[in-house]
């Protein structure tokens, strides 16, 4: 049962969609229970979303984002949800466009700003980079690498994204025993336009999503390590919308930022079902 009367915002980050609840002055209450999250995020019977985000007060940053996947599981980070958090925080008067501010996440405190082209957020340093991951390649796959951007990502270089069984192959790799906590799976290939394109199987959603911000960052980092990506890379998501990643190197650390679409689709009130 979904509690009624609570205001929410439906937001989209390049097709990665979320339900946002402003919980800075009113606690989420039953809204952060697993069954309630699953009901709200269910497509066809609920609002429909890849996850739910609670904006909360923070003692260490301008605002805190708490993200839960559509199955109710906690995610340390979601790149597109962070972009949407930045957009909504400014829309609600928390900061001005062009004014830098900070977002507390389970993966650390992140820098954010709404620039002339939209939101840009700093992501956690890329960790556990492995240019050659060990699952056996399937036909049409060239190479696999691994990187953690707050959450784990397996990056699979492919010949043709349209031939990839994202649901089947993605699920198999997501639960590969070589990844103790499971992994998101990002399939990448050059498109006919010369850009990198990406399709993602997301852990916690347990299916393909239209975009993945941390996956785009992980993909850009792995492509760069392979010597076929640039320090500033644009990756086209399944929705057709681009995400822009900048990779800066500080000694042996790769420090990324993410920019892309973040928009309020509508605002409404939850109704009891």
Task: List strands and helices in order, with pairings.
Blueprint: E1 7-13, E2 16-22, H1 34-41, E3 51-56, E4 63-69, H2 79-91, E5 101-105, E6 108-115, E7 118-122, E8 127-130, E9 141-149, E10 151-158, H3 166-174, E11 184-190, E12 196-202, E13 207-209, H4 213-226, E14 232-236, E15 242-250, E16 253-259, E17 263-269
Question: How many whole angstroms does the radius of gyration measure?
Answer: 18 Å
What form results from the Cα inertia axes? globular
- Quaternary structure annotation: single chain
Judged by helices, strands and strand pairing, the structural class is alpha+beta
- Measured by DSSP, the beta-strand proportion falls in 35-45%
Structure, explained:
This protein folds into 2 domains: 7-122 and 261-269, Diaminopimelate Epimerase, Chain A, domain 1, CATH 3.10.310; 127-259, Roll (Diaminopimelate Epimerase, Chain A, domain 1). It is 16% helix and 41% strand. The chain is built from 4 helices and 17 strands. The protein has a 17-stranded mixed sheet that branches. The protein starts with 6 loop residues before the first strand and ends with a strand.
């Amino acid at each position: 049962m979904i509690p009624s009367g609570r205001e929410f915002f439906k937001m989209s980050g390049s097709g990665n969609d979320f339900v946002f609840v402003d919980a800075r002055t009113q606690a989420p209450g039953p809204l952060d229970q697993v069954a309630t999250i699953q009901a709200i995020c269910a497509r066809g019977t609920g609002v429909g979303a890849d996850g739910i985000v609670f904006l909360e007060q923070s003692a260490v940053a301008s605002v805190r984002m708490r993200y839960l996947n559509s199955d109710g599981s906690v995610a340390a980070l979601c790149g597109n949800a962070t972009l949407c958090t930045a957009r909504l925080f400014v829309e609600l008067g928390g900061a001005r466009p062009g004014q830098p501010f900070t977002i507390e996440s389970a993966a650390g405190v992140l820098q954010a700003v709404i620039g002339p082209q939209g939101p840009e957020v700093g992501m956690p340093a890329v960790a556990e980079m492995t240019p050659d991951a060990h699952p056996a390649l399937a036909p049409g796959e060239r190479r696999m690498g691994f990187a953690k951007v707050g959450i784990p990502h397996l990056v699979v270089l492919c010949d043709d994204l349209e031939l990839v069984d994202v649901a089947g192959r993605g699920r198999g790799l997501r639960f590969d025993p070589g990844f103790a906590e499971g992994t998101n799976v990002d399939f990448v290939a050059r498109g006919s336009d010369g850009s990198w394109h990406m399709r993602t199987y997301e852990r916690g959603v347990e299916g393909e999503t239209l975009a993945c911000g941390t996956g785009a960052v992980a993909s850009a980092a792995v492509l760069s390590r392979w010597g076929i990506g640039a320090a500033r890379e644009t990756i086209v998501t399944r929705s057709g919308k681009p995400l822009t990643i900048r990779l800066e190197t500080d000694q042996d650390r790769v420090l990324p930022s993410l920019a892309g679409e973040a928009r309020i689709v509508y605002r409404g009130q939850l109704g009891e079902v």
